[in-house]
Amino acid sequence: MATSTVENYLKHILLLSEGGEELVPMGALAEALAVVPGTVTTMVKSLADSGHVEHRPRQGVRLSAEGRRVALNVLRKHRLVETFLVNVLKMDWATVHAEAEQLEHAISDEVLDRLDALLGHPTTDPHGDPIPSRQGKIDSQVYATLATCVVEKGLRVVRITEQSAEFLQFADLNGLQPGASLRVTERNLAAGLVSVKKTTGRPLILSLAAAGKILVQPAR
Amino acid sequence: MATSTVENYLKHILLLSEGGEELVPMGALAEALAVVPGTVTTMVKSLADSGHVEHRPRQGVRLSAEGRRVALNVLRKHRLVETFLVNVLKMDWATVHAEAEQLEHAISDEVLDRLDALLGHPTTDPHGDPIPSRQGKIDSQVYATLATCVVEKGLRVVRITEQSAEFLQFADLNGLQPGASLRVTERNLAAGLVSVKKTTGRPLILSLAAAGKILVQPAR
DNA sequence: AGATTTATTTTGACTATTCAAAATAGGTCG
DNA sequence: CGACCTATTTTGAATAGTCAAAATAAATCT
Ligand SMILES: [Mn+2]
Ligand SMILES: [Mn+2]
Ligand SMILES: [Mn+2]
Ligand SMILES: [Mn+2]
Question: CATH number of the domain at B144-218, out of 2.40.100.10, 3.40.50.300, 2.30.30.90, 3.50.50.60?
Answer without folding.
Answer: 2.30.30.90
